[in-house]
Design a protein that fits this description.
Largest sheet: 5 strands, parallel
Structural class: alpha/beta
CATH architecture of the largest domain: 3-Layer(aba) Sandwich
Oligomer: single chain
Number of domains: 2
Radius of gyration: 18 Å
Distance between the termini: 35 Å
Helix content: 40-55%
Amino acid sequence: MAPADRGHVHIVDDDPGVRQAIAAMLQGGGFITHEYARGRDLIAALEGLDPGCIVTDVNMPGMSGLDLMHQLRQLGISQPVLVISGEADIAMAVEAMKAGAVDFLEKPLHAEPLRNAVRAAMEQGTKLSSPEAERYRQIVRSLTRRQRQVLECLIEGLPNKLIAHRLDLSIRTVEGYRAAIMERTQAKSLSELVRLAINAGL
């Protein structure tokens, strides 16, 4: 990325250590970063906001990442949004993606996947081409009934133990289904699997 066209990334997280770590990782990839402790701080800065991408924690006190997304859409802000979440926040991250987030990444974050996700968000925005969407639907349709049930539970944010209880399966069986789903879809992470499922219309 040439200095003249480096992308601006607006980081929203209530934890200053996390904000600084994200900023450092992105700056190492040539991005220009701006930090905000709260969603309302970003909203207050909208008038002079540099175009680029927004990276927000999904679970924050006061205005959550999901609340922030809704507010941005109401104000007509179309910058792509990437959400980050802990394991316990997966269901909220899924809701954010359904509300228009481009992607979500699970904590702990790592530099290269984060940079790649931000680059993809800036290049592709929130739109998915019809052939891509159809390809995702075909992949989901290729799953067995049980695999699809497990996938639906995963995108609800349920851990293996609760999936096992809901579907009356052993935890080991659920783990087997998860592995089979990852292999069939070729998803490299839970976030990638969730993104595929949502783009397929689940």
